[in-house]
Amino acid sequence: MKMNDVTKQHRNLIAGEWVEGADVNENRNPANTDEIVGLYARASKDDARRAIAAARAAFPAWSRSGPQQRHDLLKKVSDTIAARADELGELLAREEGKTFAEAKGEVMRASQVFGFFSGEALRQTGDAIDSVRPGVEVMVQREALGVIGLITPWNFPIAIPAWKIAPALAYGNCVVIKPADLTPGCAWALAEIIHEAGAPEGVFNLVMGRGSEVGAEILDSPEIDAVSFTGSVETGRMVARTCVAQMKKVQLEMGGKNPLVVLDDADLDTAVNCALNGAFFSTGQRCTASSRLIVTAGIHDRFVEALTEKLRALKVGDPMDSAVHIGPVVDEGQLEQNRRYVKIGQEEGATLVCGGEVIEGDTPGHFMTPALFTGTTNEMRINREEIFGPVATVIKVADYDEALRVANDTDFGLSAGICTTNLGHAAHFRRHAEAGMIMVNLPTAGVDYHTPFGGRKGSSYGPREQGQYAREFYTTVKTSYIQA
Ligand code: NAD
Fold it and tell me: In this structure, which residue's CA is closest to atom 28 in ligand 1?
């Protein structure tokens, strides 16, 4: 396996050159804070400006390049990611903390996304419409938007950059990406792959650094045409305000408080496995995590007992250990937030059935046992606010109607799941759950790479990401009239 050299400074990619930053970021392993995963440059506002100018300069030629060139670039990136999956998976596990199996899965997802959009580059079709005026023809075509600013979070440090970069490039845009300061390693590796695959100078630029510096420059620059952001609701609202004031196109993917409904008629094993996977895997650090388990009275006690038994058997520890199910929390700040919410839950009168303790590993890291609360009501803060850790709650309800009402009673609307063997309830839930993605007898987290991703209410804003739907954001429509 090719490992990162910890003495090398990984620099920003600006106008096809590797450029030193204003500052250096020590990227540390959350499972062993003594271990430096790598040194990464932090860009200044000036660096960001140069990257944006380079993208602007590259745009005319790239937007007019043929689909073959874009296909070939993206296909090469896809193939290289897949060929380096073990090494990239290890880097991801070491900088973010999810288990190696989950990390490698995420790397393969990034490869698949580039593969999908390499095909989409060749499938850019338009419409020919007969005009109401004889002799006039109307053509509807899609064109690239221009320079796209991408701002990404730490929890999917390769998949989320991939699902923004790939469509942006496929449709002829140029890119400036700022990954999360906590996890620059995967974005840097992706930048190296895109650069070595032959992206022309300035078409793709990487500026690592802080949101308040580099991110703010991307939002404020008049040379940026559109911004795609994934992160917290608070930052997302500010991103939207700033972009709309400048009439930049904007797309936001934000938080979740996703319900998983378990009905009396559910298959118990299916329900328990959906809850276990959806709420706790990837250390619960997923926007699609099922943090609210809404369970009808007839199955409640059996469900809680079976889930608790499974939770107690989960091993928390080093993500590179194949016996470990749950890696560390990403950093001290997130661990502190998780602990605070466990305390809030107890103060609100919920029963902590298991977990919620900070534990020591073999190495100094941010380890926490998965926590399950019962006896909660949907009004409690632990059921209204996104915790973003391995913490889930059980809300006991009388029947399906109450379950649906509680599921929809939230400020968020990303993903919603139901476990049932009743086709009527499954079909009704698919229609009436107020979320962008619905899962029946499946975990709320874990979606395909070629289908639309996104939500409603406070979870998302703007067009969907992924699949063919991604072109709604990354292209603009032109209608042209021709009289021969
Ligand atoms: P965050 O909002 O703190 O940061 C996201 C990105 O925004 C980072 O790159 C950060 O540096 C940047 N940023 C911060 N302040 C900025 C500013 N003033 N100007 C410009 N950019 C700025 O989020 P996070 O902690 O990295 O990620 C966790 C959040 O992401 C959770 O709320 C989670 O639900 C959400 N998330 C959502 C999805 C989704 O698709 N809906 C997917 C993954 C994560």
Answer: 231
